Amino acid sequence: MMYKQCAKKFWYFYNDEEAYKGYKQTQGSDALIKGSLFHQYADSFFDNIGVSTDAYSNDVFRAALPHTKFADLNKWLDWFADKEWERFEELSAARYEHLFIPFAREEFVSMPDAIDRTGHFDRVDEIPGTKNLRIIEYKTGKSYNMDKTWAATSMNSEIGFYVIMLNTIKKYPDYKITEWAVINPTLETIWVNKISPISLKSVNATYRSLTQAVFDKGPFERNITMLCRYCPYIDDCLLGDNIDIDYELFN
Ligand code: SF4
């Protein structure tokens, strides 16, 4: 949720044509291409593997993902296959293998509001033995390290935004969304977190202040944090300010 991370970044993204073009150019970078391919392959993995759980093996899992020209992407995919194999074995041991194929994938959601809310998330898994769901995001960037408080807080907001929409439009009426997870093959880590009602309240408050700011035409304040180092608008935003970001503060 870009506005919550930094209102000024949101402003650049939606208002500054040149900056927007610069942002779009980064979409072609090597890292983003590999990230996008990882998303695509992780999603099609579940189509390739089918539902014949009797025939599953670790080799079948790895073979359900392609071998590409990118060595690091191949490493991510092998790691992903191995983690999914572990998950399958755990589910099978508890006789929940029918929950292996995700409950939903590549979900787009939208909800009419003062400014319509829209969102997309990668996957939803059913939590065994419950009627609860876990929203899952694939993130390949090193900045998506949920051990860092700022990254986890940002993810809480992002997922909270989706959860509010899903609950409001009653997308999954028989289930409760209780957890989120981030799968990061670069850091070879999977984080699972409970969804906190406080986060949902805070996200809604942010949405209200965003719509107000849009209608009032600002102010869109800068939020200078460690995340600025990944911001495509950093040159325009911090130019001439001589701001020295102490990244250590955020480690
Ligand atoms: S550089 Fe930092 S403060 Fe400026 S727009 Fe980007 S995220 Fe916001």
Quick overview of this protein structure:
The protein has 251 residues and is α+β, with helices and mostly antiparallel strands.
Account of the 3D structure:
- By secondary structure, the chain is an alpha+beta fold.
- It has a domain at 2-26 and 101-250: Lambda Exonuclease, Chain A.
- Helices cover 47% and strands 16% of the residues.
- The protein contains nine helices and five strands; from the N terminus they run H-H-H-H-H-H-E-E-E-H-E-E-H-H.
- It has helices spanning 2-5, 7-15, 17-26, 30-49, 58-63, 71-93, 149-168, 197-216, 234-238, and strands spanning 104-111, 117-126, 132-138, 176-184, 189-194.
- It has a five-stranded mixed β-sheet, sandwiched between helices.
- Strand 3, helix 7 (149-168) and strand 4 (176-184) form a beta-alpha-beta unit.
- Helix 2 (7-15) packs across helix 3 and helix 4 (30-49) runs parallel beside helix 6 (71-93).
- Residues 247-251 have low confidence and may be disordered.
